[in-house]
Amino acid sequence: MSPDSPTNYRLHKRDPLYREKYDEVMRNHRERPYVRDALHETQPLMQSAMNPTLGNLWTAMGSLFSRKTWQGTDPKNTPSINVTNIDLLKNPELSKNFKARARQMEESGQNPNVTTLYSGHGPSGTEHIARSGHDPAYGQYHSGIFGVLAKGHGALGRGTYASDQVNKAVTYGSGGQKAGEERSILQYDVALGKTHETTDRGELRHRHHNELVRPPFGKAVEEGISAPREEAEYWRTVDSIKGVKSSTPGAGVPGTIAHSKQFDSNEFLIRNPDQILPKARIFYTLPELEERARKEKED
């Protein structure tokens, strides 16, 4: 294997680095609860279920109606997790690109502001990211009538999404659906650089970065609306966007107009894939599944 090839290294549980990573993840898990809304979490599955590119509509529909089982958790409560294994991710090419991007920020007078974030993906997405890094194209989702048309890129626009909450990532973690089967999420170093913060889920929804930095700005290109120069210049300097968690109970719940425009957790949108360096893959099981299996066996 070439020294430049990406590798995964499973940490031994007696390794001090394992304990360091384990403590970091579990501290985040305990201190940053995330209470999800069932409807909010179901929406992506409704969209994917109607996405003709999936190829297997039956599987998608099955996922739609078993999201709660798939997560193995009650959407009204923060799930508990049991970390089982940790893989360090080494990718020389991604590391080189990450350092180069951070250096560009420093040379322009911008603090790279490197921070730790987490995300969860389907099995194929997790493997791809660990091996090749992020592709912003994955951020596009389908919506509209029956979800058959590509409509946009989420609440913060086009790019890669991540969270500073382990529990948020866990709701999208990939892996087994049965008791005892492992799931996984990814941990990153992210050079946030200059961050634009918003508390309004509607401010940047469906927006592509190119619409923000060159005329015409804002609405559809065919409408011919030009961007104010100072606004376009501002967006050229923005490296990431943060959706700031609301302190309002029920934030993010679709049933209420005001609340649905707020964020139920801190969300980050990273513009350039080179700002993201996958550092570890965290494997875990869900004790709630174990308890459910035990009760079903007793019954």
Automatic annotation (TrEMBL):
Residues 107-118 have a biased composition (Polar residues). SUPFAM superfamilies: ADP-ribosylation (SSF56399). Residues 105-126 are annotated as: Disordered. This is Uncharacterized protein. It comes from Sphingomonas xinjiangensis.
